[in-house]
Amino acid sequence: MSKPTWYFINSGACSPSFNMALDEALLDWHSAGEIPPVVRFYQWNPATLSIGYFQNVEKEIDLEQLKTHNLGFVRRPTGGRGVLHEHELTYSIIVSEEYPNMPATVTEAYRVLSEGLLIGFQKLGLDAYFSVPDTDEKKSALKNPKSAVCFDAPSWYELVVEGKKVAGSAQTRQKGVILQHGAILLDLDADKLVSLFKYPSEQVKERIRKSLPEKAVAINRLREKPANMQECIQAFKQGFEDGLHIHFEDFTLSDEQIKYVKSLEASRYANDEWTYRK
Q1: Which residues of the chain have pLDDT under 50?
Q2: Model's pTM, two decimal places?
Q3: Among all residues, which ones are annotated catalytic?
Q4: Which end of the chain is more exposed for a tag (fewer CB within 10 A), N or C?
């Protein structure tokens, strides 16, 4: 029995607003039946802080620190908390809610779609596994996160090595399509990440800064030999093919499709009304 064909895109380093616009455009095209499901890999130029759809910039983000570190800034179409996209490989998956054997619930769909991440980490020699909260206290913490920092704690079925989060993901469902995207950490500058958020007090900020290395870890802290970007791309591309039981076909956007992405970018992700809305 032949495996279904999905498109694969390796976008390289793009601007933050273009990255988010392209993810949304892929969702639109898949919803319209113009393209099959897609897995996309990308990076960020400049390094960027992305925030979740529901986050409040004024209350949660230190905009002066963003300027100090010369970071880009964008609001995602997905939920979740703030992510510093710097030393990482970012992935997105676009697939219909009606895809065969796709669970209806968000958490179970995470498990299915993240199987490729699990295999990718294993191909890099890491003993990764899915996080599953084992106490009521941990489950409650997922519903009421203590900070605006994504890597402050793993969520259901996110990837963990040695008890520490190694990938953070977020999901949205629109027009009958699931968009899941996330960050695969190669390296993590915990001090820079923590500096980008506002806290109730300096004591809380310091507590999070000290605890973050115990909760999140990057690939290159776990391997004797650092992984380069190309090695990670190969590992996770193969991981998604194996985990989703699919075959990839490389896909390049047409001029008309790029024009559509740029129109989305201008109207939404490069627009201050979207980024800084309450």
Answers
A1: 135-154
A2: 0.90
A3: 150
A4: N
- Let me know if domain 5-275 sits in CATH 3.30.930.10: yes
pLDDT at 49: 98
What was the pLDDT predicted at 194? Answer: 94
pLDDT of residue 155: 58
